[in-house]
Amino acid sequence: MFLSQSEFTIVLLLGLASFRLTRLIVFDKITEPLRRPFFKEIEEKNEEGISEIFLVPQDKGLRGWVGQLLSCFWCVGVWSSLFLVLLYLERVFMGEVLILILAVAAIGSIIEVIISRILDI
């Protein structure tokens, strides 16, 4: 067996925590004020004439680089995973608490999406 049961549990918790932290950084409304400086709003009219606003990373410099990073779910996922694994490996108590909270929140959000889809049918 590649991983013991306890190692599998740790990887699963880290994976769920990374998933939740990544979504928190990239998509959640609560972190929008932190993302805003790295994006510019572009307003365009769609085929029906309705205005739509798109967020595009800033053009240059550090803000542009961070904007590019924040617009990439996969990129933020790698850095979130690295951060959480390092917290875990350093045996930082609050890090372990954060990992557990994020993992539980991820499970809750996955269940919510599943239930919402079932009830929308």
Gross morphology is globular
Overall pLDDT: 90
Unreliable runs: none
The structural class is mainly alpha
Sketch the major β-sheet: 2 strands, antiparallel
| Overall number of structural domains | 1
What's the number of extended β-strand segments? 2
**How many helices in DSSP terms?**
5
- Measured between the Cα atoms of the first and last residue, the distance is 41 Å
What series of H and E elements makes up the topology? HHEEHHH
If strands are numbered along the chain, what order do they take across the biggest sheet?
Answer: 1-2
Radius of gyration: 18 Å
Strand content: 5-15%
User: Percent helix among the residues?
Assistant: 55-70%
What is this structure's SSE topology?
Blueprint: H1 5-26, H2 32-35, E1 39-45, E2 51-57, H3 61-70, H4 73-89, H5 93-120
Antiparallel strand pairs: 1-2
Structural account:
Strands 1-2 form a two-stranded antiparallel sheet. The chain is globular. Helix content is 67%, strand content 12%. The mean pLDDT is 90. It has one domain (5-110). Strand 1 and strand 2 (51-57) form a beta hairpin. Helix 1 crosses helix 5 (93-120). The longest helix has 28 residues, at 93-120. The protein has 121 residues and is mostly helical.
Essential attributes:
121 residues; mainly alpha; globular
